[in-house]
Amino acid sequence: MTTTLAQHAEAEAARSSAPVTAIAVRDLRMSFAKRGGGSALRPRVTRVAAVDGISFAVKKGEIYGILGPNGSGKSTLIRAISTLLIPDSGEVKIFGLDLQKDEAQVRRLLNRVSVDAAFYKKLSPRENLLYSAGLYGIPRAEAEAKSLEILRRLGLREKAFYEPLEEMSRGMQQKVAIARAFLASPVIVLLDEPTTGLDPKSRRDVQEFVLELRDAHDATIILTTHDMPEAERLCDRIAFIHGGRFVAEGSADELRARVGGNATLEDAFIQLTGDDLHSDDQEDT
Ligand SMILES: Nc1ncnc2c1ncn2[C@@H]1O[C@H](COP(=O)(O)OP(=O)(O)OP(=O)(O)O)[C@@H](O)[C@H]1O
Asked: Could you tell me which residues come within 8 angstroms of residue 222 by beta carbon, excluding any fewer than 6 positions away?
């Protein structure tokens, strides 16, 4: 069997004892055209910078959190890293592979979970997961056992495994999306607000599952959230994003220390961004 570029990059990473950079993002920029003002015949179109020159690096096995309010650019950043959007400029490297030049290789290393996950809604979680497993080349019996184990672990009752997805709540569908992302034991997982809309018990199930997976499989994870306790609990390092820019980066302790005293992470966010995480979204600011 020939060694792919990606396998080679991973093997190189495993050989070295120094922390390996899994994801390196350099000066990434992404803007969208937005209509506003002008007349009905001649609407004014302006460009809105959703991601405005972001650079950061994530080490192999790290859980890196991106914390910011609605409209701050989290999803756009995740979509650009997962090859769903082509950025205006900048560079993303995954284990040294270039996102655009080596797209096919990179795609095999990445898995993204978001609330807008695409499924065959008339089919059950079992059918959807077995279909995806087939695409990953996982044998059917193994896929069936693994899917069931992950869904149980995420607190989904077994009966739901066989019911059409369209009859399930959004939270349950979210768990199926998470199960699918972890089915193939991916090297890098991009979790776009994985617990938004989940009840407290489900949120905890998902958080514990994410921690276990990182510990058991050394997966590298980027996670976006607006939940402070979630960021503190899961993330080795956190970046505060505001208006498409990273305003601060560090461990939760480091971010709190930058503000001083007995500051909470929320205090740190407010002071460092000059904004409140729970204020109205940033889309029109
Ligand atoms: N497809 C698009 N077309 C036009 N504008 C977009 C598009 N996607 C995002 N935007 C704009 O880019 C900015 C950032 O949006 P983005 O969805 O990345 O924010 P977010 O931090 O993920 O928000 P949320 O927490 O609500 O998911 C917003 O101003 C948004 O309106």
From this structure: 23, 58, 64, 65, 66, 78, 81, 188, 189, 190, 191
